[in-house]
Amino acid sequence: MTLFDIHFALPITDPTWVFFIVLIIILFAPMILGRLHIPHIIGMILAGVLIGEHGFHILDRDSSFELFGKVGLFYIMFLAGLEMDMEDFKKNRTKGVVFGWFTFIIPMILGVWSSMQLLGYNFITAVLLSSMYASHTLVAYPIISRYGLSRLRSVNITIGGTAVTVTLALIILAVISGMYKGEINSMFWILLLTKVSILGLLIIYFFPRIGRWFFRKYDDNVMQFVFVLAMVFLGGGLMAFAGMEGILGAFLVGLVLNRLIPHVSPLMNRLEFVGNALFIPYFLIGVGMIIDIQSLFAGGEALKVAVVMTVIATLSKWLAAWITQKIYHMQPNERSMMFGLSNAQAAATLAAVLIGHEIILENGERLLNDDVLNGTVVMILFTCVISSLVTERSARRFATNEDVHLEDQEGKKLPEKIMIPIANPSTIEDLINLALVIKDTKQKNDLIALNVINDNNNSENKELQGKRNLEKAAMIAAAADVPVTMVSRYDLNIASGIIHTIKEYDVTDVVIGLHRKANIVDSFFGNLAESLLKGTHREVMIAKFLMPVNTLRRINIAVPPKAEYETGFLKWIEHFCRMGSILGCRVHFFSNQHTLQLLQQVVKKKYSNTPSEFSVLDDWDDLLLLTGQVNFDHLLVVISARRGSISYDPSFERLPSQLGKYFANNSLIVLYPEQFGEPQEIVSFSDPRGYNESQHYDQVGKWFYKWFKKG
Length: 711
Hints:
Helices cover 57% and strands 8% of the residues. It is an alpha/beta fold and 711 residues long. It folds into three domains: 62-400, Na+/H+ antiporter like fold (Up-down Bundle); 412-543, Rossmann fold; 545-676 and 689-711, Rossmann fold (3-Layer(aba) Sandwich). It has a ten-stranded mixed sheet with strand order 3-2-1-4-5-10-9-6-7-8, with helices on both faces.
């Protein structure tokens, strides 16, 4: 018996070492190829080539690669649908649809012609190959985010076109795949169309409703993650049952769950993390193990196929961008942006080539042979590199052009810092999620979680509980990849601790929960909120949520007259438009005619990608008029004001009783906008920001007008 019983032979079959080698590749491939500026997707495929049977044959493509590869393929298509910005698509839907048709039809026409004339393939193979050219992946979109150009018209048009062309390409793939799964006759097409229509409507109609119900009822992170994965594979299984490819179902599930999973939510972060850390790399490595790079240089057709595929895919995308530019009289740099974003081939292309490669024809040949499989890798490599270079160059031109910064506020804004005082463990998750959807995603370290302990309370339990609350808040935010500064302090009272922390950390916004009334004489907002409003002029949100933030379907905002004269007017508009855009829900403003016109101008100019509505609300003193507009799954936002501010109205004194009476079963936020200066205990009568006594005269004037009108 030897000290170490080692039997080393290639290929390695022991599951422990197989998984270890895969993990080492996933770990080091991005490090090495990132220095060479090669896309990670190519790095994983090349690593698969090296360890596969056409390379050093370190591993066999066993059942684990089949299983994880299937999961990874579904995951790619699900994330493609989940990350699609549907509001951007709606914003430029006409231009987006036109560009989507061009970027689909032109590659199809050139692809079919080149595949049949230059490569000698049959019509079905040519159509499937052309659909690979038509689809594209927004590989270069992180460049747009880095430069802060996501609101550009050309970017929105490209995103809309992506939704159109990817959907059409997947339908072609699913139809061709379905043709080879059954006998092709007239009844086949009728049954296929009927089954796909019924199951497609089932996914589109029922899945969002099931998802909304589940997220409201269960807030456990693990359960939500498993539920989403179950929905993905249920959608894929239903499409496979209909005779189509399961990836179409996974893509549809991503689209219909898009609004329920915000891009900055912890759930979205977990979905992307698990997919990018394990399932998708496993799938890409498995793809590489099939490829025979040596055939490209063996003097056969493989190199010719690779060159034709790369040239046709790139040329057709440029033509689609050029024609769209000419139709809508766009700038040359906008054409470059559309071409750069739409040129990269990745997710749907890989799905199509693998499915086509697995289809065996009657003569024993594959629908997409090994030459196409190998050529696809070359095409992905070159198109991803071209896409990144062109998009970077175009984005830099836009960033240096002052004309594109129409959305920017005049002057420089102070760095945003949002503070969440934490006391009630049951409200921590809702408050953190609210802060995540209103924060500026470009800024880092802008969330502060605060725990204040009363000086008179020496209980160690209070300190320990506060520490646990802070850790819970940090974990929730960390799940969305957002760092949180944790602050714990002793002070005379809670309000004093919050006010001192605001000054010490230059906090710009405060998010607190609505307290629970302890007794019948207790006020609606509580002593803490009232003391806080007197002690700071920063923006304060007092929030109460009866359901998770991501399940809200509409944001209704009641805006008082003269709100536009407050310092924080533009800030709170930005926060709720940002919230509506991230959650994919409509923002509905209610105000008088004059304020409503200014709201429309601001939203149209700076936040046009947010779906919005505007309705006149003249009788601000009675919120009962809004009860018919606010449903149980809506958020009611009331823009209030501190006593003595420009927009303060005596009717605000009745606000607590109205909210408690009419909207007890609704999620709501009462917002106090930011104001100039520092708080003052005494307000001078000569101060123009003092008590707005003229509003009392306005009320009397309105009463006399109504009385004479009745007479």
